[in-house]
Design a protein that fits this description.
The chain is α+β, with helices and mostly antiparallel strands and about 350 residues long. The chain has a domain at about 60-65 and about 70-160: OB fold (Dihydrolipoamide Acetyltransferase, E2P), CATH 2.40.50. About 40% of the residues lie in helices and about 20% in strands. It contains twelve helices and ten strands. Strands 1-2-10-8-9 form a five-stranded antiparallel sheet, with helices on one face. Strand 8 and strand 9 form a beta hairpin. Helix 9 (about 215-230) packs parallel to helix 11 (about 265-280) and helix 10 (about 235-255) packs parallel to helix 12 (about 285-300). It is globular.
């Protein structure tokens, strides 16, 4: 929930079970014939399968998250003196080999949980994806504050498949270091890097600078790469472009409710690109584009005190009073966005 200029901005995404009582089902979905509903669900499953088959990258998001962590550090380290407690709890020491970001002590005692089976409910705090083993080398992130989640293994460097992503993390670290000296133009260059994680970090850094939203050249650099990604044959690239448009549009939404003190990105180019992406042949890409477009269009002063249900698979929305009872549910991926009542 974001409080801004007397308005409360809320966006909630929901993936809900198909096993719902009819009275508790979204009205937008309730009128769809079962055969058509099944076809819509199947097409979304096929779209997700296409994304996976096209080389969906499951590792880069962890690298990105580590470098976006405020005040955190990232380093190559080796696990030493691993001790197993109760089969799933481990204690060990991480011996620093090379710091990529921030400062990390040479020896870091940690504890974590790991299991070769899915956790029955949800992972405990400190659960890791990489199995602790004495001598294993990893890329790790360390939070600024200590706690159960202060350490996280990012890459298993003893696994050749994961180790192949280490050079990308090195490029990200160098890009941040160069930008600290040369300025945000370094990130504009990073937008066109071949590696997804480098591009994504470059975008996030630019979105949070004061210079880029006020600089038409910087804005156009971002939009040019969005257009390039939308033309890719790989649906994951097109999905990345839509995620970028969603991130940029969130910076614009507040300024549609009131005038912002500093220049912001322009909404109309975002709208045009999202409208184009809605027609993507991969319906998962189109669905996300429709959700971002509907959310961007809804955040206006006249919608203060209202919410909007968004059902991307149907390309439908429904406006309803803020705080009112409104069911959002069914086998399709639904979302809701709100502009709370204005406060004087």
């Amino acid at each position: 929930m974001i409080m801004n200029a007397g308005h409360c901005l809320v966006t909630v995404c929901l993936l809900v079970s198909s096993v719902l009582a009819q009275s508790e089902q979204s009205e937008l979905e309730a009128h769809i014939p079962p055969a058509m509903l099944q076809e819509l669900v199947a097409s979304r499953e096929q779209a997700q399968d296409e994304l996976r088959r096209s080389g969906q990258d499951a590792v880069s998001p962890d690298i990105l998250r580590a470098f976006l962590e405020p005040g955190g550090s990232v380093a190559i380290a080796k696990m030493e003196q691993v001790v197993t407690i109760d089969r799933m709890k481990f204690t060990f020491t991480l011996a620093l080999e090379k710091a990529l970001r921030g400062t990390t002590p040479q020896q870091v005692p940690v504890e974590c949980y790991w299991s070769d089976r899915p956790w029955p409910l949800r992972p405990p705090q400190g659960a890791q994806r990489i199995k602790p083993q004495t001598g294993k080398r990893i890329l790790a992130s360390f939070a600024a504050q200590s706690g159960p989640d202060s350490f996280r293994g990012i890459l298993d460097l003893d696994d050749p498949t994961e180790a192949a992503f280490l050079p990308r993390a090195v490029v990200v670290a160098k890009m941040d270091a160069d930008a600290a000296t040369l300025g945000p133009s370094v990130y504009e260059i990073g937008l066109v890097n071949e590696a997804t994680v480098v591009r994504d970090l470059a975008l996030q850094r630019l979105l949070h600078t004061k210079e880029c939203p006020a600089d038409s050249h910087c804005e156009e650099s971002i939009l040019a790469e969005v257009r390039h990604l939308l033309e890719s044959k790989n649906p994951n690239d097109r999905m990345e472009a839509v995620r970028w448009l969603g991130d940029i549009s969130r910076t614009v939404q507040a300024c549609q409710l009131r005038s912002c003190a500093s220049p912001q990105f322009h909404a109309e180019p975002l709208r045009e690109l999202l409208q184009r992406a809605v027609r993507d042949k991969n319906v998962a890409v189109g669905d996300l584009a429709f959700q971002h477009l509907a959310t961007l269009d809804f955040h206006k002063k006249e919608n203060a005190g209202y919410c909007e249900e968004i059902v991307p698979a149907l390309r439908l929305v429904e406006r309803y009073p803020f705080g009112g009872k409104h069911w959002i549910g069914g086998p399709l991926n639904g979302a809701s966005t709100c502009v709370g009542p204005a406060h004087t």
